[in-house]
Write a structure and sequence with these properties.
Blueprint lengths: L4 E6 L2 H12 L2 E6 L4 E5 L4 E6 L23 E4 L3 H11 L2 E2 L4 E3 L2 E7 L5 E7 L10
Parallel strand pairs: 1-4, 5-9
Antiparallel strand pairs: 2-3, 3-4, 6-8, 7-8, 8-9
Length: 134
């Protein structure tokens, strides 16, 4: 069986731990690699924050930049109460990008974390994705 690990590069580990713990209700489980990686728990997937300074070399020999950026990979956090989760994330430093949208399957808030990464908060309706035909 495969195990999914999410790794998020961040410029400052302490601030990133505070943000993800406060915004998403996660907790620091342990520090690894001489304190340069924090493993966060409290979700159904392992989330690792990796301290990588801005300007250090990333994939394809590009320097890391923590300004808001688009990437085809992001993660969604399913929540029971979108309004409460959104308030907690905003208070922790997230930025709401656009409005909260409603669809047959539920509601979604698109956010940016303080490090330029996209995160979506999703509150499913009773049927969830099964409400969508196809």
């Amino acid at each position: 069986m495969a195990r999914v690990l999410i790794n998020i590069d961040v410029p400052a580990l302490d601030g990133a731990c505070r943000f993800y713990c406060d915004a998403l209700g996660l907790r620091v489980e342990r520090y690894l690699f001489s304190g340069s990686v924090a493993e966060l728990g409290g979700a159904n997937v392992a989330l690792f924050l990796l301290h990588k300074p801005a300007g250090s070399i990333a994939a394809a020999a590009q320097p890391r930049d923590y300004a808001r950026h688009w990437t085809p990979v992001h993660f969604d956090v399913a929540v029971d109460d979108l309004d409460a989760a959104l308030a907690r994330a905003l208070a922790a430093g997230a930025v709401l990008e656009g409005s909260v949208d409603t669809a047959e399957w539920g509601r979604i808030a698109r956010l940016a974390d303080p490090f330029g990464h996209g995160i979506c908060l999703v509150e499913f309706s009773a049927l969830g994705y099964d409400a969508v035909e196809g």
